[in-house]
Design a protein that fits this description.
Blueprint (H helix, E strand, L loop, with lengths): L3 H6 L1 H7 L5 H20 L4 H19 L2 H11 L5 H25 L5 H27 L10 H4 L6 H27 L6 H33 L5 H44 L1 H11 L11 H19 L5 H13 L4 H22 L15 H5 L1 H7 L3 H17 L5
Helix pairs in contact: 2-11, 3-4, 3-11, 4-6, 6-7, 6-9, 7-9, 9-10, 10-11, 11-13, 12-13, 12-17, 14-15, 14-18, 15-17, 15-18
Length: about 425
């Protein structure tokens, strides 16, 4: 087994020990494709979604068919040595086209103008032409010896095959450069959602890493052309690892905005449900009941049920609300230095607690109650704010005490 000193002098051996598994990007890309699949099925006519779906599908196919054992299987099934080369190159070229189509769709949004369609058509025509030329060059080349890992460098000086290798690398480099530059331009625009911005950053880094794949391949092939040295390890070790890292980052870049927004929404719903707990417990003393409990309900449904329970309980309580107390409590809260929104919530909480006490002291029946109480529109709309201040009883007591002092300071004849 080689020691550290030997590995330091042998970059190929070092990279082989730290190479990235092909299955990592395959798994990441498959997850991203599964997340996007429902949207793809429902809105297949959307060019942006079609471009994303094509990108993820071709990316998965590239890594599956570029795996050495899959290469051997393809060659064996078809009976043609190295036919996997133009097949994988074609998939990679189609992937490049999907990158550019995605950029066209992103830049133009819902625009369906003639220039947008023309740009998309040019991308399809040019890269379809590249695929055709790849197969023609392979048919003209003489490549009888199967190579599963080092075909690019092994046949780098073979007529027609060298042109094929150069063609797919140049097509890949051009598409990757354009895509990376436009994505980084988009990252710098204002008004982007934070999750989308981070997703775009990962996409930009991923496409930038793809350029390392091209640089490694071109350097290794160029060394073969010039005979200046054997740098095959750049093609067989560094380039595949760079491609795996790039594809994984791209997949995460697509997953992150959707996953982040989903988690953020889950957290918001659960946090809102938890914040309503103080007001919910107070309203239980009014209604004497509980909100329906369904352990298998979704978080959204539980939140809706809790909000509905609170609002239903507030309606009969409205007849006990003292609007004069609410005005004094609001003035008191502002006098204590609370900002206007919190002062309004504190005043509502003081009024609501007073109404609960009044109801317990002198409950009214429906026959003796007035037909309508004070306006409860604010309470119904701002139950979250009121519930939050109920967690600070010291603030409520301070506002209540100051409001009482304000009431006692008013002359009796007023």
């Amino acid at each position: 087994m080689p020691g550290p000193a030997q590995l330091a002098l042998d970059p190929a051996g070092l990279l082989s020990r730290f190479s990235v598994s092909f299955w990592l990007p395959i798994a990441a890309l498959a997850i991203a494709l599964a997340i996007k699949l429902p949207s793809l099925v429902k809105m297949w006519r959307d060019p942006l979604l079609r471009a994303v779906g094509g990108l993820l599908l071709f990316a998965c196919a590239v890594f599956v068919f570029a795996y050495p054992s899959t290469i051997s299987w393809t060659n064996r099934v078809t009976g043609v040595p190295n036919i996997s080369a133009p097949w994988v190159y074609s998939l990679l070229t189609a992937l490049c086209a999907s990158w550019l189509l995605l950029i066209v769709a992103w830049r133009n949004g819902t625009d369906r103008s003639r220039s947008t369609r023309r740009a998309a058509r040019w991308v399809v025509v040019v890269y379809a032409g590249v695929v055709v030329v790849l197969w023609v060059l392979f048919a003209l080349a003489d490549v009888p010896v199967e190579r599963t890992r080092d075909l690019d460098t092994y046949y780098a000086r073979t007529p027609f095959m060298r042109e094929e290798i150069l063609l797919y690398l140049l097509a890949h480099t051009a598409a990757c450069s354009v895509t990376a530059r436009l994505i980084w331009n988009w990252v710098r625009t204002d008004g982007l959602d934070a999750w989308l911005r981070w997703g775009l950053r990962l996409l930009g880094i991923g496409y930038g890493t793809n350029l390392l794949f091209d640089a490694a391949k071109l350097t290794a092939v160029g060394a073969r052309w010039t005979g200046t040295g054997r740098l095959d390890w750049l093609s067989t070790e560094l380039a595949p690892s760079a491609a795996c890292v790039s594809a994984t980052l791209v997949a995460i870049g697509f997953i992150l905005p959707h996953g982040g927004q989903y988690l953020r929404e889950r957290w918001r719903v659960r946090a809102d449900h938890w914040r309503l707990r103080p007001l919910y417990r107070l309203m239980r003393t009014v209604s004497g009941g509980r909100a329906p409990f369904a352990p298998r309900s979704t978080a959204e449904l539980r939140l809706i049920r809790r909000e509905t329970f609170i609002r239903d309980a507030l309606l009969p309580l409205s007849r006990y609300l003292d609007e004069e107390l609410r005005a004094r409590a609001h003035e008191a809260a502002l006098g204590l230095g609370f900002e206007p929104g919190r002062a309004k919530a504190l005043a509502a909480a003081v009024t609501m607690l007073d109404a609960v006490d009044a109801r317990e002291r002198s409950p009214r029946t429906d026959s003796t109650a007035p037909p309508s109480g004070p306006d409860t529109a604010y309470l119904l709309q701002e139950i979250q704010a009121v519930s939050r201040v109920l967690r600070r009883p010291d603030d409520i007591e301070a506002v209540r005490a100051r409001a009482t002092a304000l009431a006692e300071s008013v002359p009796a004849h007023e």
